[in-house]
Amino acid sequence: MIFMHLILALLLLSNAPATDCRTIADHDKRSFDNLSPITFDVDGDGKPDTIIPRTYVVRNNQQSKETHWITFDLKTSQGYVLKSFFRYKYGTSRADYWVYALVPCNANKDGRINLVFYAGDDTSDETIVLLNQGESFGVRSRKRTTSAHADFMQHRQPSPPSHYEDFGACPFECCTYRRWTVNAETVFYQGRSPNSHVIFRAKKGEHVTGLTGVVITLQPGKALVKKATTLGRAPHQVQLKPGDVLYVLHYLGEGYYKFWFRGRIYEDELPSVNDRLSPAEQARQAIQPLSDPQTVWWVKVKNKRGRVGWSKQDDHFDDMDSCA
Fold first, then answer.
1. Which end of the chain lies in a sparser environment, N or C, as judged by fewer CB atoms within 10 Å?
2. 31 and 140 in one domain?
């Protein structure tokens, strides 16, 4: 009997998927506005495959509610297409998660590449392991964690973020992560902190490659709605009434900002406290700026030797503007 129990235990262990998935890193995370293709080997043939994210809105007109979804399409290097192999509800008309990630995970030993999906904000997140079953993906496990002080999605009215990180953002018009020229001696760190280990230094005139970046909102700005108006980019728009307060997260370029209102994040053109307007022009404004956001932009770059590091001295680089 003991021998039979041992055999059964070994069979169960041999068939159980491993959970050696790597931890989701900061550079994996992207906002739900970032729907650029994700490329890595999915079918295990050693060639890159393409995963295309898509977002959509489901509206319940009878209840005046809506839910926000993200789904993924897979196209392999061999031309095989799998539509909507995974769907996830990342928010409602009340509040959305801020960032998501989809990364490879070797959870099985059958040669197929499994996936890890992540979605989260500053108070809670969810991680889902997806098993690659050949012609479909199944949920292996899901784990949701919530901070001790709040449950953002269910137990309280959403409050504006005190600390917001926009992964992959390039915060001005025509800003492009590509080859940059260093215009002043710059130190690059292992992490997004000047207290972390120094990876390398670059001198004026050297070339580096901008890989990605994170715009961090240390203190949101504020703007007051004076006249009824609609802001946002379709399909993510919001109707505002006099007295509403917008929390401005960071600048995008050409007068556009990313802002927070009642648990959701939008993008639109907003005035700044630095705008020079006449009293007549100010009276015509639907939005009155009260304060601008305080932000810092950390950029992640690689030098010609392949070393990768972080810097928040974004003014130390030329050739960031692809329109120049």
1. N
2. yes
3-state secondary structure of 29: coil
Q: What is the domain range of residue 116?
A: 20-146
Alpha-carbon span 236 to 266, nearest angstrom: 7
Q: How many domains does the chain have?
A: 3
DSSP output for 202-225: E-TT-EEEEEEEEEEEEE-EEEEE
What CATH number is associated with residue 255? Answer: 2.30.30
CA distance linking residue 283 with residue 131, whole number of Å: 58
First to last CA, the chain: 77
Is 114 strand, coil or helix?
A: strand
Query: Is residue 229 a part of any domain in this protein?
Result: yes
Pairing status of strand 179-182 against strand 317-318: antiparallel
**What is the Cα–Cα distance from 44 to 111, expressed in whole angstroms?**
6
What distance in Å separates the CA atoms of residue 199 and residue 309, rounded to the nearest whole number? 6
Name the nearest CA neighbour of 90 among 67, 73, 74. Answer: 67
For 24-83, the pLDDT digits (tens) are 887 888 888 788 999 998 988 889 999 999 999 898 777 667 889 999 999 999 999 999
- Please tell me the pTM assigned to this model: 0.60
Question: What does the pLDDT look like over 233-284, one tens digit per residue?
Answer: 888 889 999 888 999 999 999 999 999 998 888 999 999 988 888 888 878 8
Q: Which DSSP state fits 84? A: E
Query: Distance between CA atoms of 21 and 107, rounded to whole angstroms?
Result: 6
Please indicate, yes or no, whether residues 30 and 131 belong to a single structural domain of this protein.
Answer: yes
**Residue 11, in any domain of the structure:** no
Q: Are residues 93 and 131 in the same domain?
A: yes
